[in-house]
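Memo subject: From amino acid sequence to discrete backbone structure tokens
Action wanted: Derive the backbone structure tokens from the amino acid sequence.
How to read it: Take the token row as a discrete description of the fold.
Attached in line: The record itself begins immediately under this heading.
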Amino acid sequence: MENMYLNVLVIIVFILAYHVFVNVHHVFKRYSQFTLIILSIISITLCMNFPIYESHGHVFDLRFIPILIGAIYGGKKVVLVLIIYSIITRFFIGGHGFYVYLITSLSFGALLIYGFIPLFNRLTQNKKIVYSSLVALAYISYEFTICHIWFGTLTKMSPILMIISILVAPLLTAGVVYLIEYLRNANELMENYNIHNKTKALSEMASSISHEIRNPLTVTKGFIQLVQNDDTIEVATRKSHLKLALQELERAESIITDYLTYAKPYDEINLQKIDVKKEVEYIINVINPLALMNNVKVSTSFDDHESYFIKIDKKKLHQILLNLSKNAIEAMPNGGVLHIFISKEKNKVMIEMKDSGVGMTKEEVSRLGTPFLSTKAKGTGLGTMVVFRLVKTLNGQISVSSKKGEGTSFKLRFNEVN
């Protein structure tokens, strides 16, 4: 009886392992059929190594259930591989029972390939459970019948064990099929839910972006019309209007760029070994004019004797640091200090950007990276969404701490390379 429990446990673990690898973590989703074959072979091998009954060359176990499951969810190729494997394995075990298994497995395989597999996919869930359990019952009855014909007796298995086996096989098959169908339906519902949420988020994003882009375009259109229609405008005023129009166009371009980056973060990733200190210095040079205009002082802190190398896409790192820097500067309307720290932490390079701005509440921090949360009057929150998306794309980590009225700290961590 212990081996029967072990057979049942092996089959259940096999089903759960397949679901986890293929449907949950999507590790082997592209190779789902191959994964099904490998896991089925493992479960068949374990069932055969721990038979429920073995005497005078007759070996009985529940190996036919992984074969049945592999057939109905993997198709004809899978069942052929599994039956051939099980026949070869049974041959090496030896005994007259090999010929019994040869007959039953080939007959069973033909029934599955030409009868049950084409029928199964057209059945409702309840009928799949009933029909598969009937196939399991038919197989075990057929095997006992062939044993009776071959050995001249039904088997020397105890009547109680035989009755339990006849009951367990179809019930276990029904339970396994029910479990698979339940997990598949749950996974399908989750995928549909995720698609719905993504569609809803993109719809809201598109609506908000169209509004955000329309604002600078309207301003630009107004300035251009003003310059075009009024010939009396002085040259200095004309230049000022055109400068403002150009700034608004640049703002619109920035919004579009952020949106495209968020929508397709994996496009054209060019990994290269870079010196974080040099890249931070470059970012400081870029943002210094904006910082000076807003009365913000930018300072850096790192160990001159240390090297800080990471493997990353330089352009995307620039985009992350620029977005965070601009957000930090804009969070200090009355001026302040933006500190940029570079350090090492457990084989990782950490970049911390800390401002002395308005800060955020715990609720605002928890919602960072979600569509269109912004603490700025004219903000869309898209820049922060892009930062979170890019950090994840580049296999980095991001953490945020903030206190209302005291400032915010963003910490980025990337794997260090030598």
